[in-house]
């Protein structure tokens, strides 16, 4: 039987993908006590990067928001792989977002809201988190956005 969070994902029409394998020398997640840290996830869909390029150049704000949302879906897939059950998430402690954009771009926070809004939509108050959002000149595989996370796990 699906747990509360899995039911919420189903209500939202979200199916978690198979967690992505690392593309370099790192682990997709690590745990120490109740702290789960998930490595940065890019906007993969069916094994391909769904949003490539830089915000305000090849990627619109709306597509950037969708990319951040997809990144968070991939973060949740890693959380489920690490814990076996998304209901074990007591709280999302922090999300970190990396937005590929030129130096003149200033809408990083709006883009990262795609991930943050979904976190709250899925986990409720336990999804409210601290956050950093950073503009970068490029990301792996020319991804437009990357999102990482820290979780308190029961």
Features:
two-stranded antiparallel ribbon; five-stranded mixed beta sheet; 28% strand; alpha+beta; 60s Ribosomal Protein L30, Chain: A
What structural class results from the helix and strand content?
A: alpha+beta
According to CATH, what is the class? Alpha Beta
The arrangement of helices and strands along the chain is: HEEEEHEHEE
Q: How far is it from the N-terminal to the C-terminal residue, by CA?
A: 19 Å
Task: State the CATH topology.
Answer: 60s Ribosomal Protein L30, Chain: A
Query: Biggest β-sheet: count, sense, barrel?
Result: 5 strands, mixed
What is the domain total for the residues? 1
Number of strands: 7
Proper CATH architecture: 2-Layer Sandwich
Q: Helical proportion?
A: 25-40%
Would you mind describing this structure in some detail?
- It is globular, with a radius of gyration of 15 Å.
- The chain has one domain: 2-Layer Sandwich (60s Ribosomal Protein L30, Chain: A).
- It contains three helices and seven strands, in the order H-E-E-E-E-H-E-H-E-E.
- With 154 residues, the protein is α+β, with helices and mostly antiparallel strands.
- The longest helix is centred in the middle third of the chain and has 23 residues, at 61-83.
- The strands form two sheets. Strands 1-2-7-5-6 form a five-stranded mixed beta sheet. The chain has a two-stranded antiparallel ribbon with strand order 3-4.
- 38% of the residues are buried.
- Helix content is 31%, strand content 28%.
- Helix 2 packs across helix 3.
- A hairpin with a 2-residue loop joins strand 3 (44-45) and strand 4 (48-49).
